[in-house]
Specification:
Layout: E1 5-7, H1 9-19, H2 35-45, E2 48-49, H3 62-68, H4 73-80, E3 91-96, E4 98-103, H5 111-114, H6 120-128, H7 130-143, H8 168-179, E5 182-188, E6 191-196, H9 197-200, H10 211-226, E7 228-230, H11 231-237, H12 242-254, E8 259-263, E9 269-272, E10 285-287, H13 298-305, E11 326-331, E12 334-344, E13 349-357, H14 365-382, E14 387-390, H15 397-406
Parallel strand pairs: 1-8, 13-14
Antiparallel strand pairs: 2-4, 3-4, 5-6, 7-9, 8-9, 10-11, 11-12, 12-13
Length: 407
């Protein structure tokens, strides 16, 4: 067997950024976007991860902002039926990576996961509450699409203690969603709106792709979105078991769809798809969601960019180093720093609550801040905010504040 090709780490980094759709993502240099552009961008990534935190903006909006510029968020809402429509459109949700928006056409690819047992505690709960689960399904079948909060079942009691303290009827909807008996037809005020699958799925989406074929296709898509990736990277993209991903990769290599490569400094085998784009230079300035595919697998971000990263929303305040909702900053082919952003909608201000430059780029702090300032201004305008203010500390705060004032 011939020795795999070897590629420099810098080239691998450029391949990864280009594959992710971030090459050429420059503030003020992108054209108008419409639904078709949004669909193409989602198709390139395969999914949009969801998260409820909206201190800056909810995560599923941000990968498209990074790649397309200030698009119409209402257009995305209409596309995925967030506060629009009560019927199933072209998109739904499932636990792909984590909870994520994905095309309805991909529903058959996840049949194998819907057929798997849930975690032992969840499976035990479902068995113990089988009658309730059946009752809840029957209510959705009778009443049609609705939110869990709209249920009339007696077990749907409102409990004190915050959003996490849900009724048994609510947890029954979670079981039905995980098993595929209920599908998401949209959201209302960010709460899922469910319908019985057999009542709303188009015929083309009712089939089931064989487990091996489905996982091979998911690994193929992960490779296209990543450009160059290791076994662990490819398994994580759609949260497959490493052993399953390994089988799929071997089959794709044998079929000539993947090429094994060695990347300088990675210390483990990697794979590229033939013809993967490898620009000689990357031009990009982008604010990345904590759940952007370029950085959502933290070991990959550290391996490719030397960037140790945690979002910090789950970290006690006293232990946070870089703020609360921390976004990596991509400039050209490096993650050069991170900013903690908050949209103060009442005051009309995008607040930079913390700004940190990576030590390797410290000598260029002022230059890179000048690159960052237009992206901050673009993000503020996209949110309908009047201005950007640097209101917190950090090793980059002084330079970012100066660049914002100069802009």
């Amino acid at each position: 067997m011939s020795r795999p090709d070897r590629i420099p780490a810098a080239q691998a980094r450029r391949i990864a950024i280009a594959a992710s759709g971030l090459h050429g993502a420059m503030p003020g240099e992108r054209g108008r976007t419409g639904p078709k552009t949004l669909e193409r961008a989602i198709g390139r990534l395969g999914l949009l991860q969801l998260d409820s935190v909206n201190v800056f903006e909810r995560s599923h909006y941000l990968p498209l902002l990074a790649r397309l510029g200030p698009y119409d968020r209402g257009a995305l809402d209409r596309l995925v039926h967030h506060d629009h429509g009560r019927r199933l459109g072209s998109y739904t949700e499932y636990v792909a990576h984590e909870a994520a928006i994905l095309p309805v056409a991909d529903w058959p690819l996840w049949a194998w996961k819907r057929q798997q047992p849930m975690r032992p505690n969840d499976e035990r709960w479902a068995d113990e509450h089988a009658s309730l689960v059946a009752d809840v399904r029957a209510e959705f079948a009778e009443r049609g699409p609705m939110r869990p909060s709209d249920m009339e079942h007696p077990a749907h009691e409102r409990l004190p203690g915050g959003w996490w303290n849900k009724s048994d009827a609510y947890w029954a909807t979670a079981v039905l969603f995980r098993r595929g008996d209920l599908v998401t037809v949209g959201r209302s005020r960010f709460e899922r709106r469910y319908a019985v699958a057999e009542a709303v799925l188009p015929e083309a989406a009712t089939g089931a792709v064989d487990r091996g074929d489905a996982q091979r296709e998911l690994v193929r898509r992960a490779a296209a979105a990543y450009g160059v990736a290791t076994l662990d990277d490819l398994a994580d993209y759609y949260r497959l078991k490493v052993a399953d991903a390994k089988v799929a990769i071997a089959e794709l290599v044998d079929a000539g769809e993947f090429e094994p490569v060695e990347v300088d400094g990675w210390g483990r085998p990697a794979y590229v798809t033939p013809g993967a784009r490898a620009p000689r230079r990357i031009r990009s300035t982008a604010l990345l969601s904590p759940f952007d595919p370029l950085v959502w697998f933290r070991p990959r971000a550290e391996r490719i960019f030397g960037f140790e990263y945690r979002i910090s929303i789950y970290t006690p305040a006293a232990e946070r180093q870089h703020g609360y909702y921390v976004l990596p900053v991509l400039i050209d082919d490096h993650l050069v720093g991170r900013v903690d952003l908050k949209s103060d909608r009442r005051a009309g201000i995008l607040r930079v609550q913390h700004a940190t430059i990576e030590p390797a780029h410290g000598e260029r702090a002022a230059e890179l801040a000048a690159r960052l300032a237009p992206a901050l201004a673009e993000a503020a305008a996209w949110q309908g905010l009047d201005r950007v203010e640097v209101t917190g500390p950090g090793t980059w705060a002084r330079q970012v504040a100066a660049a914002v004032r100069a802009g």
